[in-house]
From TrEMBL:
Organism listed in the record: Mumia zhuanghuii
InterPro entries noted in UniProt: MPAB/Lcp_cat_dom (IPR018713)
GO molecular function: oxidoreductase activity
Name of the featured protein: DUF2236 domain-containing protein
ER-bound oxygenase mpaB/mpaB'/Rubber oxygenase catalytic domain sequence ranges: 43-266
Top-rank taxon: Bacteria
Pfam (any one): MPAB_Lcp_cat
Length: 298
């Protein structure tokens, strides 16, 4: 096995888990109607290496909502099993993006059932529940904004304005199914909704600790540490200034525009190159009912 295949296996196993190849084959090879197809923006964004940057940015941004962060801090076990949490998240994204309607709906039912059991009290005394439509909307908005901005900067192909709006609308379908409250359906609505959440976002000890864990002490083997550091720097570089101060993250405009951006581009390009290794994780042929046509919904 060559360097490319070894790198692909290391990255894919970390993100998707030991059963990742089998799950990938099942998701892509399953016959049945799909909401989205290969020509849809959501396929292009969620299948691109820029998602590594977008995922880190989303976690940092989401941590700023004290109720959402309390739920993660008290229930997710991200410190003890961060890769397990990442693998469950990546699996849900894969099933709802690339899977059949049946697969997507099953994934949504499972997550909704889990959310129904997650509730408690935040350190500030307020109750929270993971199935709260308002909190679900925040999590969705932070993810959609992060994934889209990371793709704008580091994606293999830049989306047109119309494709960016379509991407937001397509992600809103999944968010609505999860119970989010009227998620935005275009980029302007996404920007406005993110701005509307700002008064609720604050610095908390849990958020600062999560940022340190994500950026400084992640359970990453030394062979991948340099690449992960580059991805983390790229993610911080995409955060707005107002989101950095509460997390005590620096704003270095010149460095971010040069060194961070170059490092992020190199890291995502390397991951993209590795994951395209044809002999490692062969892409299953799309089924006859996948993508556009009578089986397509939405």
């Amino acid at each position: 096995m060559g360097v490319r295949e070894l790198l692909a296996e290391a990255v894919f196993t970390r993100v998707a888990g030991e059963d990742g190849p089998d799950r990938r084959t099942r998701i892509h090879g399953e016959v049945g109607p799909r909401r989205f197809g290969p020509d849809d923006p959501i396929w292009g964004v969620h299948g691109d290496a820029s998602m590594f940057v977008g995922g880190i940015r989303a976690l940092l941004l989401q941590s700023l909502h004290p109720l959402a962060m309390a739920a993660v801090d008290q229930h997710s076990g991200y410190r003890g099993d961060p890769w397990g949490r990442l693998q469950r998240t990546s699996g849900f994204l894969a099933e709802t993006t690339f899977g059949t309607v049946e697969t997507s709906e099953r994934a949504v039912r499972i997550v909704r059932a889990i959310h129904g059991r997650v509730h408690g009290t935040a350190p500030d005394g307020r109750p929270y529940a993971a199935d709260d439509p308002h909190l679900l909307t925040w999590v969705h908005v932070a993810e959609a904004d992060s994934f889209l901005r990371a793709h704008d900067r580091y994606g293999a192909r830049r989306l047109t304005a119309a494709e960016r709006d379509t991407y937001v609308a397509q992600t809103a379908e999944v968010a609505s199914a999860l119970g989010a409250d009227d998620p935005p359906t275009d980029t302007e609505g996404l920007r406005a909704r993110l701005e509307a959440f700002r008064p609720e976002l604050v610095s908390t000890r849990a958020a600062r600790e999560a940022a340190r864990f994500i950026l400084l002490t992640p359970p990453v083997p030394w062979t991948l540490r340099a690449g992960y550091t580059a991805l983390g720097a790229a993610a911080v570089g995409l955060l707005p200034v107002w989101a950095r101060r509460p997390l005590r993250l620096p704003w270095l405009p010149i460095t971010e525009a040069t060194a961070f951006r170059a490092a992020g581009g190199a890291a995502t390009s390397t991951i993209r190159w590795a994951m395209q290794a044809p002999s490692t994780f062969e892409e299953p042929a799309p089924s006859a009912e996948a993508g556009s046509g009578p089986g397509r919904q939405g």
